[in-house]
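[Q] Does anyone have a clean structure-token version of this?
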Amino acid sequence: MKSTLLRASRVLNALSTAALWIAGIGLVTMTLIVAYQVFTRYVLNASPPWTEAASIMIMSWFIFLGAAVGVRENFHMGFDVLIYVLPPGAKPWLRAVTDLAIFAFAFGMAYYGGELALRYWTTRIPVLGIPTTFTYLPIVLAGVLMCLFSLERLLLRMAGENVDEPATDDVVTAD
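[A] Here you go.
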């Protein structure tokens, strides 16, 4: 069971890395589109109509994908103040509650985002010519990824893996 979880964790690590790369490429792309828009507006006095809609849509993609990666890397919200005041035995339980809360919220994102995506498949974003669904897909995808990542943390914690503290072999000590 533990070896299966560790293999699944490697797959989820690859998914997280891919999401991070896509988010990074989206950030760079959005920056280039906005720079192009500013140049065409203030230098050429003729800004293309698609630049604002495209940059906003790309921004939603990299924000939601980045948030999903934040869940996997444990950079997301939690009960941090309580973690430092509770006795050591209570910390895993509180972290599990945090993961369950993230799972529930992410499930809602995936479910209701999916409803929005299905509802607006037939409408189009006028200046881009693509279905409005593409605006809501990052909510669905990020919700699914957050569910997977929070479930991974819960299962690995139950299997005895240390998912809450940084790995000790990465720490450099001075001699």
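[Q] Thanks! Anything notable?
[A] The chain has one domain: 2-164.
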